[in-house]
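TICKET: design request
STATUS: open
ATTACHED STRUCTURE:
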């Protein structure tokens, strides 16, 4: 990885042990003072068990509502919960129970009732305002001795995932239900109707999981799967609702229509391989047309006749609606088979499964109409140079809508140094683009370096929320020191964002992938950041550098950033201590607020990746349940063994958060548990198909990323999971 300062000196990340209790990361990470204050306020609102509040001649009282663990902090309307008091310092252990709180005035018991002798509390029928109630136990022996605990009254809310979702004829789809508060001892009543009639093939018990098998007739949104909490006092009449539904569309085949694909990996001789293209499927999952650009070890070839199919999994499990095998055969060219997992929208994440090589990629539904007119794109490309060394490019491309590119900028890193054509980044980028035989082509001049690409229009919209993505692949006829082998993404840049310091003003999750100091193994990292919009990002990170593990530090580092032009920023990342000691410079080309492509500027690790805005409200494991399509994002070396999986996350109670599913290659059953803490980070601990440990960084309630943090894993990778 070269010689870094501080935390990255020598062979890379320092040998710090992963904490034994990663699920206690709530003690280890603080994103910002703002978040800390917010949670301090919450703690004050819901309260903690307290003892010895009065002098009481040495009498102390500790109040609890959960004999088996930590106090419950949330209950629902009309719920009853038993409080107990542990009294020490006197032989008279009797207490008197009372309630207090800003809402505890007026008639009709607005904050509930409590039995003065037994401590049995009954919540009110409606949530008080404010919703917090303090429970106090006062010693009968001395009224100055008190103990307190807080409780927060919340409306029962139920979420069913995934929604919406397409289900193929005869295929099986799992649904999960989660309720807030998850402290409540609640079960679920499930229903499934098709055009108002009960579904013929629906199996559910009172747990948070139900299984639907689609009929053999297509219909658009005609199936409704619903779950109601057993403790919802108003059924489905409350606002917010105590039940929720998922809309299901039944289709002949989950993969149909036109898709754009990108794949990168290595062949059986360890030569780098990249593929990009466009493929159209009929309603039965058969390929009717397609074009593939394939580059193997620097040699480019375009194939305009493609055949193949997508076939769903034949496993007798609950994942075959979300998994299958994709085959693509280029006429006169390579034939590939991929194990594929599907998200709720029918987009694929895939790994090669034909034994002819390894690699991973994506296939997403194409929306060509969104690519039009004058639009700006930021890009992140990775690849290798003619010596096989890792290369990374990131930059900005303004497209004028008439085939011209001007005013672009870019940064490069070729094995630790900027290219000779762009020695003082950012360097100017100009070029042209056009359609040739139905394929978009692009010729760029990066500094004095000419680079040619084909690109394909993927998914997304010309907006900030779900930005349009293009997939690019280099098509240079010469593969030499001046013409690297590159592929990657181009993402629509939001024109409504002001690209100054204020664009980095909230929570984010960033991932980086590179190579270690030998160039033979990989390093990966995940960073949780919180920008202040004024030149600093509070950061903590986890990393695996060829089996050397770095666990997130106990305190966040304050890491500065600077702005340039066109959405270009220079960040300091992967540092430790309050002042971000040992950090390295990483350039960010922003596509929007707290979003963009990352490229380390100066190390031979050539770390590349991206930043995504994080939903700061994802703070509890009960927010994550659902079915996820998970797969390796990219392979930095040929030693990486990519994986894909259907992950089913369920949350049954405050202490039980399970992982199940199927992992590929091999279609192996997965079992394990997961955690999530207040800052959106947590863990996944698998017991099958093999014991393995991951750290998890949630982007929102339907997306997360994770990396392996086992010392035995010397070629780790970033896994992206999406419902």
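STATUS: resolved
RESOLUTION: sequence designed for all positions
ATTACHED SEQUENCE:
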């Amino acid at each position: 990885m070269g010689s870094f300062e501080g935390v990255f000196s020598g062979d890379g990340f320092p040998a710090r042990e992963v904490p034994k209790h990663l699920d206690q990361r709530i003690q280890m990470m603080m994103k910002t003072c703002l978040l800390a204050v917010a949670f301090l306020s919450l703690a004050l609102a819901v309260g903690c068990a307290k003892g010895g509040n009065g002098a009481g001649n040495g009498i102390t009282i500790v109040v609890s509502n959960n004999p088996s663990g930590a106090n419950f902090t949330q209950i629902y309307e009309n719920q009853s919960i038993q409080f107990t008091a542990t009294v020490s310092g006197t032989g008279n252990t009797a207490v008197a129970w009372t309630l207090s709180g800003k809402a505890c005035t007026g008639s009709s018991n607005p904050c509930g009732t409590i039995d003065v002798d037994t401590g049995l509390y009954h919540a009110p029928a409606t949530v008080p305002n404010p919703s917090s109630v303090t429970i106090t136990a006062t010693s009968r022996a001395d009224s100055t001795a008190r103990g307190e605990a807080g409780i927060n009254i919340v409306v029962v809310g139920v979420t069913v995932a995934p929604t919406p979702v397409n289900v193929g004829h005869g295929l099986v789809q799992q649904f999960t239900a989660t309720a807030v508060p998850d402290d409540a001892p609640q079960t679920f009543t499930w229903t499934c109707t098709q055009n108002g009639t009960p579904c013929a093939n629906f199996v559910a018990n009172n747990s948070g999981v139900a299984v639907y098998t689609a009929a053999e007739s297509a219909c658009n949104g005609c199936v409704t799967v619903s779950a109601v909490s057993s403790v919802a006092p108003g059924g489905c009449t409350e606002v917010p609702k105590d039940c929720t539904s998922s809309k299901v569309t039944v289709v002949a085949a989950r993969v149909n229509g036109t898709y754009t694909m990108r794949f990168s990996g290595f062949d059986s001789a360890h030569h780098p391989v990249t593929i990009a293209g466009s493929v159209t499927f009929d309603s039965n999952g058969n390929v009717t047309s397609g074009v593939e650009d394939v580059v193997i070890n620097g040699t480019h070839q375009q194939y305009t006749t493609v055949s193949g199919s997508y076939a769903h999994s034949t496993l007798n499990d609950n994942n075959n609606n979300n998994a299958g095998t994709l085959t693509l055969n280029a006429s006169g060219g390579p034939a590939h088979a991929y194990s594929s997992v599907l998200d709720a929208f029918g987009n694929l994440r895939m790994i090669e499964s034909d034994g002819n090589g390894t690699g991973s990629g994506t296939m997403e539904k194409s929306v060509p109409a969104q690519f039009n007119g004058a639009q700006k794109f930021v890009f992140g490309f990775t690849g290798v140079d003619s010596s096989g060394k890792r290369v990374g490019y990131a930059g900005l491309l303004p497209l004028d809508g008439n085939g011209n590119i001007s005013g672009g900028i870019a940064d490069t890193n070729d094995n630790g140094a900027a290219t000779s054509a762009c020695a003082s980044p950012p360097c100017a980028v100009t070029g042209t683009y056009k359609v040739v035989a139905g394929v978009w082509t692009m010729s760029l001049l990066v500094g004095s370096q000419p680079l040619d690409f084909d690109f394909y229009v993927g998914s997304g919209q010309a907006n900030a929320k779900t930005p349009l993505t293009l997939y690019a692949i280099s098509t240079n006829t010469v593969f030499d020191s001046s013409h690297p082998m590159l592929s990657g993404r181009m993402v629509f840049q939001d024109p409504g964002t002001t690209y100054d310091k204020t664009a980095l003003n909230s929570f984010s999750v960033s991932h980086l992938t590179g190579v270690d100091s030998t160039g033979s193994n990989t390093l990966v990292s995940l960073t949780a950041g919180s920008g202040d919009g004024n030149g600093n990002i509070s950061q903590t990170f986890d990393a695996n550098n060829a089996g050397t593990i770095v666990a997130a530090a106990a305190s966040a580092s304050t890491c500065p950033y600077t702005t340039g032009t066109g959405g270009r920023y220079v960040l300091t990342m992967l540092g430790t201590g309050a002042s971000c000691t040992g950090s390295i410079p990483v350039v960010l080309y922003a596509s929007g607020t707290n979003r963009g492509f990352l490229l380390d500027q100066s190390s031979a690790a050539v770390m590349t990746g991206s930043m995504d805005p994080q939903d700061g409200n994802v703070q509890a494991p009960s927010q994550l349940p659902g079915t996820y399509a998970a797969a390796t994002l990219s392979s930095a070396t040929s030693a990486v063994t990519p994986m894909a999986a259907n992950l089913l996350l369920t949350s049954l109670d405050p202490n039980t958060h399970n992982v199940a599913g199927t992992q590929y290659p091999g279609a192996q059953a997965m079992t394990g548990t997961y955690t999530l803490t207040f800052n959106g980070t947590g863990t996944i601990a698998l017991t099958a198909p093999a014991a393995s440990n991951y750290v998890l960084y949630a982007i929102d309630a339907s997306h997360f990323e994770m990396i392996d943090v086992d010392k035995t894993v010397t070629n780790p990778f970033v896994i992206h999971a999406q419902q």
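CLOSING REMARK: Residues 1-52, 237-241 have pLDDT under 50 and may be disordered. Helices lie at 33-46.
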